[in-house]
Amino acid sequence: MQLAVWTYEGPPHVGAMRVATAMEGVHYLLHAPQGDTYADLLFTMIERRGKRPPVTYTTFQARDLGKDTSELFQTAAMDVVARFKPDAMIVGASCTAELIQDDPAGLVERMALPLPVIPLELPSYQRKEHWGAAETFYQIVRTLADKSRRPSEQASRRPLVNLLGPTALGFRHRDDVAEITGLLGRLGIDVNVTAPLGATVADIERLGEADFNILLYPETGDLAAQYLERTFRQPVVRTVPIGVGATNEFVREVAALAGIDPAPLLAQEESRLSWWSRSIDSTYLTGKRVFIFGDGTHAVAAARIAHEELGFKVVGLGCYNREYAREVREAAKRYDVEPLITDDHLAVESAIEAAQPELVLGTQMERHIAKRFAIPCAVISAPVHVQDFPARYSPQMGFEGANVIFDSWVHPLVMGLEEHLLTMFRDDFEFHDGAGASHLGPGHAAPAEQPVAAAVEAEASGWTDEAALELKKIPFFVRGKARRNTELFAAERGIATIELATLYEAKAHYAR
């Protein structure tokens, strides 16, 4: 175990809490010591929920360890039933309580409580938050789904689907569900159940009535989708509709299963991303170097959008959840980059510094890293902070999600006209290097050890003083690109020392 200031995923019981908090009428009894109750704050402080999560802690203390903590757990279970009257209860232990081996599942089973109880076995020291959410949702579906339910005759109704995977504390899950529900409605398809977000016990019972399932978030919904596929023979749509290309594929796949013609909907071209990214005003996007890191699903989707739809050059791609390392490695091959599979934010920071990107797409951790390096950044994946739960409608999925992504990614970049103006006014008090990036707002002066500036100093031996001084006059956000181009130009021509004339010749060469 490694101590760190930041962590991409919490322990698996936090994932279980995300599922319980997402649902209605489900309560989570967590065997945990006093001090493990911090997770409540994730929902009330970060997601800004209006009520606390439906979680009861046994909160045993050090003095309780000398007596029967199992009795403490059983008393708490009875209190939950009497006070909250849930329709179902899930029980488990936190990472600390796991060490005392009280066996919450066996304790509750012997109590014969008058409601469905779903025991959780979450190995806290081998697994993490996303796996905990997926396992919890799977156990709920496995326990509560009514195996006698099947789709009714389709002649008198529209096709029915289940949306699987959205949870509490998920990145834009609320808005994604609204966007995809509306998109399906325009196709002529109705949503049977969305789960776990907003689902009740009765909803879980009727999952089998859908014609097929749509897996929106594989990290949290895949285990349940596999179970429903085996048990109810329900096909699963696994294309995640993030980006214009993926949304078009998603619509075609869904329409094929529903027996619907997708052409009328696709002909409407609801997203403006494709046109804007081809417009003359967006030519400054072409070739922008982008570093991408997040959960596997969002990172792979972001890389496809960056490469295919915006013309960026992917210079880094990785994920923190090792369960999706294979998908990220396959994507990295397509963009000819080395995949980064790690949950160490310091390793990610080093990779960003080495890649010298012009845009970072990542989690809240990468946002902090990019801010230190004065690099533009957009958040694409959990873990996120309070500003990534906006009050406005802001999906990532579907055609409107593609519009949101275009705005979120492109607006932090300094546009071509701004580059020209900053070059003209580079000696102005507001635009010199020490002032930092204007698009990052006040209070974000350029740090003393920017990766680009450090790189210029490191390579000074290969440049004349006059050329190095001229290079430093180039605005910081394009200086790294200018240095790389000049050095490549010199290397191809066997020039050992870069002079001022070499810099100008390289600029003219790449401007053609």
Keywords:
512 residues; alpha/beta; Rossmann fold; 4 domains; four-stranded parallel beta sheet; 21 helices; 13 strands; 45% helix; globular
Topology:
Elements lengths: L11 H11 L3 E6 L8 H7 L8 E3 L11 H16 L3 E6 L10 H8 L5 E3 L9 H16 L15 E5 L8 H15 L2 E6 L5 H5 L6 E4 L2 H15 L3 E2 L6 H15 L4 H5 L5 H6 L10 E6 L1 H14 L3 E7 L5 H10 L4 E3 L3 H11 L3 E4 L1 H9 L4 E3 L18 H13 L5 H9 L26 H8 L6 H8 L3 H17 L7 H12 L1
Parallel strand pairs: 1-2, 1-3, 3-4, 5-6, 5-7, 7-8, 9-10, 9-12, 10-11, 12-13
Helix pairs in contact: 1-5, 3-4, 5-8, 6-16, 12-13, 14-15, 18-20, 19-21, 20-21
What does this structure look like?
This protein has four domains: 12-129, Nitrogenase molybdenum iron protein domain (Rossmann fold, 3-Layer(aba) Sandwich), CATH 3.40.50.1980; 154-267, 3-Layer(aba) Sandwich (Rossmann fold), CATH 3.40.50.1980; 273-413, 3-Layer(aba) Sandwich (Rossmann fold); 417-511, Proto-chlorophyllide reductase 57 kD subunit B (Helicase, Ruva Protein, domain 3, Orthogonal Bundle), CATH 1.10.8.550. The chain has a five-stranded parallel beta sheet, sandwiched between helices. A four-stranded parallel beta sheet has the order 2-1-3-4, with helices on both faces. It has a four-stranded parallel beta sheet with strand order 6-5-7-8, sandwiched between helices. It is 45% helix and 11% strand. The chain is an alpha/beta fold and 512 residues long. The longest helix is centred in the C-terminal third of the chain and has 17 residues, at 476-492. Residues 448-459 have low confidence and may be disordered. The chain has 21 helices and 13 strands. Strand 7 (212-215), helix 8 (218-232) and strand 8 form a beta-alpha-beta unit. The protein is globular and about 85 Å long.
